[in-house]
Amino acid sequence: MMSENAFWREKRVTVTGGGGFLGSFIVEQLQARGANDVFVPRRRDYDLVQPGDVSRMLDKAKADVIIHAAALAGGIGVNRARPADFFYTNLMMGVPLMHQAWERGVKKFVALGTICSYPKFAPTPFREENLWDGYPEETNAPYGLAKKMLLVQAQAYRQQYGFDAIFLLPVNLYGPRDNFDLETSHVIPALIHKFIDAQARKENQVELWGDGSPTREFLYVEDAAEGVVLAAEGYDGAEPVNLGSGIEISIKDLAGMIARLTGYEGEFVWNTDKPNGQPRRLLDVSRAEESFGFRAGTDFEEGLRKTIAWYREHAKVAVK
Length: 320
Hints:
With 320 residues, this protein is α/β, with parallel strands linked by helices. It is built from 10 helices and 11 strands.
């Protein structure tokens, strides 16, 4: 847990998406660091896709610092089903917001991107310099490209106006409060949901997507929030920065680990008609440590245990 920092005293901070998964932990980190004026715009009050609502929100917030964590995000299935929504919504939530923030003299803008912006066959570990070396993996390219445009915008506004906008690239996140809806969730919450549900129903088979060969890197959500806040405090650069753990695991091994931790003892049925997604994901995380001292601190298995415990407590169907 981070200690208080004078950077946040007297600053008005706005966290878009602050009621969501990552955003809620960012808000907690800010408060722990001494921020006492944190505004979280709610979707029921402000549709950030609409520039007029962005303007109303900024009128109310009068922010010195904006952390833009709001996003339309999800797993492979929902990305394939709604590519236009994922492109338009994420682009239009970000671009007008950054533009209006510059117009109003906001002192710091933190834009959160996504690992989905990297080329499909980027060499591992992914270095920030590889970001433009190819097209993203097709199943989530519209989402990844919409987010990547915020990097272009941040660099352009820095170059022309001297605007202090930074761009962070978080790897796949997991932890308590994640989205466990099987229609829209990412792989870790989906596996936890499936295994615990199978136990409750006394089923001995669970269908999993793909063939289990792709690899992924995961970052515990509290660590990610810490990285975002440290970057807001200490990074003022044009180059994007990866936020990750630097640890790679195959989906097959991940499924085995989560099955063990949940107590599921049945079979996995790999549905190879479903897409694998990007073949490998692993970040070079050295820039974050060198630039603002961030290094992930949560052991992966311990983070999974906390996530599973949270789901058991909150699930409608759970094995106690």
